[in-house]
Request: fold
Amino acid sequence: MNKSVFLGVVAATTMVAGVASAQATLEAVKARGELICGSNTGLTGFGAPDASGNWVGFDVDLCRAVAAAIFGDPTKVKFVPTTGETRFTALQSGEVDVLVRNSTWTVSRDSELALDFVAVNYYDGQGFMVKKDLGVSSAKELDGATVCIQTGTTTELNLADFFKQNNISYQPVTVADDSEAQRQYLAGACDAYTTDASGLAASRATMPDAENHIILPEIISKEPLGPVVRHGDNNWGDIVRWTYYALLIAEEKGITKANIEEVATSSTDEEVKRLLGVSGEMGAKLGLDNAAFKNAIAAVGNYGEIFSANIGEGTAINLARGLNALWTQGGLQYAPAFR
Amino acid sequence: MASELSFVRDKMLPPSAPPVREAGAVKWLRENLFSGPFNTTLTILGIVVIYMIISASLPWWLNSVWNAGSLAECRDIVIASAGEGATGACWAMIRERWHQFIFGFYPPDQYWRPVLAFGLLVAALAPVLFAGQKKNMSIILGVVAVFLVVTLGLAGAPVGAWIATLGLLGGMLALAQVQPGKLLWFTALFPALCFWLLWGGSVWVPIVALMGFAVMGVAYTALVARLGPTGSALIAVFLALLWWLFIDVPLTQVIDGMMPWGLVSVDSDQFGGFLLAITIGVTAITFSLPIGILLALGRQSDMLIVKTLCVGFIEFIRGVPLITLLFTASLLLQYFLPPNTNFDIILRVIILVTLFAAAYLAEVIRGGLAALPSGQYEAADALGLDYWRAQRLIILPQALKISIPSIVSTFIGLFKDTTLVAFVGLMDPLKGVTQIVRADINWKGIYWEPYIFVGAIFFVICFGMSRYSMHLERKLKTDHR
Reply:
């Protein structure tokens, strides 16, 4: 009885706090003068500080785009490193305004945790890496293999599901983090290493003998990663969502960081004009400057530019666009109409 | 007659050398390493294990690379110099990222501030650690002065800060020769100075806050004759609280408006690496000792409420893992504060780490109190001392002396526990900074080097604490065991 009363009070306090902060995120951000973006504690290519302390990466650029849309200045953003355990609570409690930290969109996170995944900026999936001399070309041939797997992640559950469905056995070798997994795998403690395909590619790129390792073709789970906001402030969710879509539309329409000024003055495409704030009041409808999306694109480039600068082909990580190509090129990245 | 006794020696023979097996290295080996079949076996096994460890790791150390731009480059250099299949340490990573291990994201042009704060910390500790030892104190102050002259020069400190530091240390050195006790005033003022150096901002913030203590002191001395120590202490604390709650902020703003002197302010989230570990560790150590003493005394008290509160607090904190308290600091507290309040995460963590250490110290000190024969308590009473005087003059000096090894153990544990803050997203040197370094594609896959580097620095600091505690024990040794 007493316990439930206490929990009720906690819940009520949380709700009151939640309602009070709802509808006000944009005002709070503007009043503070900077966006607070929950980011990774360090994930190659997606978000990490470099040697001089500047945050760089694929997820980081999306935060900068949102900051540029709000303030016209991509530097007005503070990155708060969050761990796998603290990320959602940091968002719920209002410590961060938006979480862009390769978090997988699942139904329980949407409902139970009262969060909104507003877009998917990277379609990932769980894969396997094995040594070439193991002579395996499909994950289904991994019967009896030892597999290095990080504990406490959804990848652990996916792995169990996959092996059970295919009626084969495996021996898990649990490791704490990515660097330990890589070390164990290279030392021969496990035959296969499984994690998100983007992580596998990054690991493989830094191995001393990358040519001796292959990533198997099977992707055994859906890992749609995207920016997350709190329930209760729909306008704020719209701002993050449409900033992201603006980057996608920019790629679709061939608007780049370099040519944006020229396009803004010369384009006759009505959707481009609305996107860049030349005609219509799209930015103002979201409570932003009319040139908000133009600023976002000018600050970080379009989606394709962000992708190729941080993780795409030509970088050390060397990820193919794959599912993350535009819908016009056979991928899944599709932005709704900008009108 | 005497000439017949030719076989009698008239002088001593020179002593012959002892048998080989009873002298020198051979004797030592026989006695210590090969004194029986069992010990001989153990010795041989030990030598084999040591040989295996060294032969496995020595090439790795010898092939160390200090100049490279990435891990792949390191590997190429090792292979070029030592042949295919050789391994080598890649210290080039430390060379490129050492500043993040030490300072986190602190702005590089302000590095002189944490360096200065660290140097002055040692200077402020000297009068406490070496009370009454003029020679040791002078040595420490001299070393700090030399250290700061060099490092402040390297860190590009402004000339004004340099001169002020040298003047301050020179003054302290001179004072140490005549009135070393007075140096404690610098120690008392140091927390405010350190806060200002590290976080920056207006110089008036710490000064006006310190004036609250002045208010407390003045009120206490004015009232103590009339109201006795307890009543006047309560009123003095109350007045000081009034000062901090209602006068502090507006007064600071007014003075700062007139004389806006200060340093560039640095946010807490720019702290990281050893700067963070030492900030949390030193603050927690400083405040947990007095709180721990009060809790230990409270637990022994006859007053029911005080005793219950102390026991409840100690048992609660000791019953909960530190990591739970850290999550509370990082996540739960935020729910109970009004929305959009920004209660500094480092401050939250420091408070909870302090309380955690205080609970453990309370038990350690209670052990010391319990070890004193009851005759000591009775003797203090018989002398007519009141409670606080008895504690201060008779009981605590003896109880604390007994507890020194355990107290220092707790401190060492506390300092190493600061790495746990990585779990709430702070950039501790061991996990936080290591992880961001490994997230750089150039250094991804590096494993032992960051751990060895961070471990070595932790070892130096903890070993220093341990040696100091042994020195203190020897110095305070009064019995004849």
Observations:
- The first helix of chain A runs from residue 2 to 21.
- Chain A is about 40% helix and 20% strand.
- The two ends of chain A are 53 Å apart (CA to CA).
